[in-house]
Amino acid sequence: MKESSVEQPSAVNKANTEDDGMSWWYRWLCKIAGVIGGISCAVAGVWNCVTVNPLNIAAGVWMVLNACVLFLCEVPFCCQFIEFANAVAARADRLKPWQKAFFYCGMALFPVFLSLSITTLFGNAIAFATGVLYGLASLGKKGDAVSYARLQHQKPGDEEKLTGTTDGEAQ
């Protein structure tokens, strides 16, 4: 009985990752951007903490926390010493791309609003770009031109059939 309950979440995660419409290379691009964004947030956050201004210190601490969250959500194997890392990663994988986009962009914008400086801008730029990549994934795949052209040519015929007119056949 336990064996079926263990298999069920993995099947749900696999089905959910296939339902989000992201190809394998785009999913890897988002993960790599998340890792690079985490590294840039961590480095810039530590650098931002080397000051006496309390807002810069708060923004730096927030950026280091952003880096930890990005690592937990995108690459949990880097955080093996944290017991709940796999649970957080599994929950993050169940989120829809637009939810991840909103979360990552919000996380990246907060330190910039807290302390606007070059360090916070460049440190959070890649983390924000990760959110943008997930936002673009939520828009869905682009259709090909041939299918779109066929759809456009079928519309007048379908409308004529519905209304009963045949004037459009002369075109």
Task: Give the helices and strands, then pairings.
Elements: H1 2-19, H2 24-48, H3 54-74, H4 85-94, H5 97-114, H6 118-139, H7 145-163
What do you see in this structure?
The protein has 171 residues and is an all-alpha fold. Helices cover 78% and strands 0% of the residues. It contains seven helices and no strands. The chain has helices spanning 2-19, 24-48, 54-74, 85-94, 97-114, 118-139, 145-163. Helix 2 packs antiparallel against helix 3. The radius of gyration is 23 Å and the shape is elongated.
Low-pLDDT sequence parts: 1-17
**Which word captures the global form?**
elongated
> Which percent range describes the beta-strand content?
under 5%
Overall pLDDT metric: 80
> What is the ordering of alpha helices and beta strands?
HHHHHHH
Number of strands: 0
The share of residues in helices is: over 70%
Number of helices: 7
Structural class: mainly alpha
Largest sheet: none
Provide the descriptors you would attach to this structure in a database record:
7 helices; single chain; 171 residues; mainly alpha
Summed up, what is this model?
The protein is mainly alpha-helical. It contains seven helices and no strands.
